[in-house]
Amino acid sequence: MLLIAPVTARSGSVAADTASAPSLTISQLKITSSNGQFITLYNSTNTTLDMSRYQLEYFNNYDLGKATSRRLIALSGSLPPHGYYMVNDSSLLLCYQLTVNSISLGLSSTAGLVEVLAFNQTSPGGSVTPVLQDYVGWSKTITAGAQTLPSNTNAFLQRQPLDVHNNPAINAPGAGSWQTVQPDATNACNLVAGSGTPSTVPTGLSLLLPATEPPAIMLALSDDTSTTVATAVLPAADIGLMAPQLTELLPNPDGTGNDASDEYIELYNPNGSVFDLTGFGLQSGITSLHRYTFPTGTSLPPHGFVVYSSATTGLSLSNTSGQVALLDPFGNRLSVSEVYASAKDGQTWSLANGKWYWTTTPTPGAANVIKQPPSTKKTSATSAKAAAGKTAAGKTKTAKAGTAAKPSAFTAANTDSASLVPIHSGVLALVVGLALLYGAYEYRTDLANRVFQLRRYLDTRRAGRQ
Questions:
Q1: Of 328, 330, 365, the residue nearest 350 (C-alpha)
Q2: 0.85 cut: is pTM over it?
């Protein structure tokens, strides 16, 4: 079902571009907040798009006459020809070349509408007129004028039909239908139709790249005024392949390890064929970024783990707080590690089941083994506290109703009551007596003066009475 064009409800503030096909369209939509939300956009042109000239406009109802809130979501970066741009609010499994913009979305799972707007300035200092590129509305229930959201938290909506390269074939804003899809249980980078798990993957539902190579992007070197230029090209052998993944980092080598040479970053090739890393790069750091570009001829073997040491890359991984990203030749992030805090000696920051963990078992060049450091909690002290708590609880039960039982001093002092030995009263009296005698000896002069003053005071009072 298609939406009624929303521009009529906006008093003509957004113009629909009906003269030609939109340059930026919506290809995927996931609203279920429990497993993250995302919106995937597709560049249907043969040129690179400046994403700062586009915005997403969100309404909390597909019927703009009933919408009570509106939000503009700014975009940034550049999008290569026939490339994909995902706006997401959680971690992702990246299965193809993708520009990712992670922001907080907060889209309503009841009803809503998203529009893609292009802002084209007519003249320097002139007015800016937003042009509607595409839109889609949704509803939690079957409603005329909106797409029905899938109930499965792993499922999402994908634009249909697709062209021969699995790209959404859209001829006008809002055109085309939508289909419910979800990741295949046997291969998360393939999709199956519907909310269930069909035995076969329908034709045209692959998450692979289009089978055409985008034109090269010529970039002028900022530090060279000569005619030399740098060319960013996606290797032809990588077209249609899944992106490599960062899987393991060693920021703090143990023992005789040298940070300048023995730190390493591990990549995994999820494909059944060689992946050409020519022009791809590794980026380390959070506030101060450092980059290493793979030279021509660098490759990853099929389903292989490859380690790149700091001696090769020249990248230094911080021991206190750091992050690593894999970049494509255009500078887009393909795979990003989670930010780590304090790096322990000899432990690696490793990926397993979509999450990052510290492990005491480094596995350079092999599948990760997550063996986490032992807990620092003392079980004996914990058991003693638990036993003391039970004893105190038992005594509390004997208190009268409505009367709060006083806490035990021994329990509050975090002391094991079983280790206390009762003191004999005679020994206690002897200790007190010795303490008093020692005090009298130390302060004998002061005591003598006090006695002398008392005697003079008494003599004076007697003389006064006489």
A1: 365
A2: no
